[in-house]
Automatic annotation (TrEMBL):
Identification of the protein by name: Nuclear segregation protein Bfr1
The keyword Cytoplasm appears for this protein: no
Keyword ATP-binding on entry: no
Any GO BP annotation: intracellular mRNA localization
Domain of life, source organism: Eukaryota
Length: 296
C-alpha cells in the first residue's frame, strides 16, 4: 500500500509539472522566443544549403583546375620534346660544322706541313751542298784574279802547276773562273798629265812637245809589254792548301750537320705542339654545343 501511494504521488507531481510547462508554452513571451528560434533555424538551414552549394561549386572548380593542369602538363611535355629535338638537331649541325672545319684545318695543316717539309729539305740540301764546296774557294779565286790583274798575267799565261792546283782536289768539280781580258798588243797606261796634254794639244808649249818627243823616242814605237814576275811566291804548296781546305771544309760540313739536326728537332717539337694545340681546340669546340644545350 505504501508503494502504490508513493507512485500515485509521483504521477501527480509529473502531471503538475506538465501542466506548468504547457502554461509556460502558452505564454506570449515563450511563443515569441519559439518563433525566433524557428526563424533562426530556417536561416541556418538556408546558410547550410548555400554552404553545400558553394562546396559543390568549389569541387567543380577543383575539377576544372585539374583538367587545366593536365592540359598544361601535356603542353609542357610537347615543349620539352620540341626543345630536345631542337637541341639534338643543333648538336648534329654543330658536329657537322666542326667536322668540316676540322677536316679543312687538317688539310690545310697537312698541305702547309708538306710545303714546309719540302722547303726545309730544299734548304737543308742547299746547305749541305754549299758545305761540301772546298773552303776559301771564292776567296782564292778572288785573290787569283786580283793578282793576275795587278801582275798583268792573263788566264792563258798561268803555269801548269797553278792549273793542277786549282783542279787537284778529288771529287770536286772544277770551278769556272771569271776571265779578265788581257791588254791588247801595244797598250800602255797613261799618266794624268799625258791625258790632259792629249785633250789640250793645241795649247801646249814647245818644251812640253820636246819632252813628249823624247818620251816617244825613248819608248821606241810607243808600245809597252806587260811585265810578269819571275817568281810565284804567293802560291802555297798544293799539299798544304789541300789539307787546310779539306779540314776547314770538314768543319763546315760538321757545323751544317749539327745545325740541320737542331732544325729538324725544333721542327719536330713544333709539329707535336701544334698537333696537341689542335686537339685541345677541337675538344673545346666540341664541348660548346653541349654547353649551349645545357643553358637552353
Amino acid at each position: 500500500m505504501e508503494n502504490s501511494a508513493s507512485s500515485d504521488e509521483a504521477i501527480a507531481a509529473d502531471k503538475a509539472r506538465i501542466d506548468e510547462l504547457k502554461a509556460k508554452l502558452d505564454d506570449p513571451e515563450a511563443k515569441k522566443v519559439s518563433d525566433r528560434f524557428d526563424s533562426l533555424k530556417k536561416e541556418m538551414d538556408a546558410l547550410r544549403a548555400e554552404g553545400d552549394k558553394a562546396y559543390q561549386e568549389r569541387n567543380k572548380l577543383f575539377d576544372e583546375r585539374r583538367a587545366l593542369e593536365k592540359q598544361m602538363d601535356e603542353l609542357y611535355g610537347k615543349k620539352r620534346a620540341s626543345a630536345q629535338a631542337y637541341n639534338e638537331a643543333k648538336d648534329a649541325y654543330y658536329a657537322k660544322v666542326q667536322a668540316i672545319r676540322q677536316a679543312r684545318q687538317e688539310k690545310f695543316k697537312a698541305e702547309k706541313a708538306k710545303e714546309d717539309a719540302a722547303r726545309r729539305d730544299e734548304e737543308i740540301a742547299q746547305m749541305r751542298e754549299d758545305a761540301k764546296v772546298p773552303a776559301y774557294t771564292s776567296e782564292i779565286e778572288d785573290c787569283k784574279l786580283l793578282i793576275n790583274y795587278l801582275t798583268g798575267k792573263s788566264e792563258d799565261t798561268q803555269t801548269t802547276a797553278e792549273k793542277k792546283a786549282g783542279s787537284g782536289i778529288a771529287g770536286v768539280k772544277e770551278l769556272e773562273v771569271r776571265k779578265v781580258e788581257a791588254d791588247f798588243a801595244g797598250m800602255r797606261l797613261k799618266k794624268k798629265d799625258e791625258e790632259l796634254e792629249g785633250f789640250f794639244g793645241g795649247s801646249g808649249k814647245g818644251k812640253k812637245k820636246g819632252g813628249r818627243k823624247g818620251q816617244a823616242s825613248a819608248n821606241g814605237s810607243g808600245t809597252a809589254t806587260p811585265t810578269t814576275p819571275s817568281n810565284d811566291a804567293v802560291n802555297l804548296p798544293l799539299g798544304m792548301r789541300a789539307a787546310t781546305t779539306a779540314a776547314q771544309t770538314q768543319k763546315e760540313i760538321e757545323r751544317v750537320e749539327k745545325l740541320v739536326a737542331k732544325m729538324q728537332k725544333k721542327n719536330g717539337d713544333a709539329g707535336a705542339d701544334a698537333d696537341a694545340e689542335g686537339d685541345k681546340d677541337a675538344e673545346e669546340k666540341k664541348d660548346e654545343p653541349a654547353a649551349a644545350a645545357t643553358e637552353a
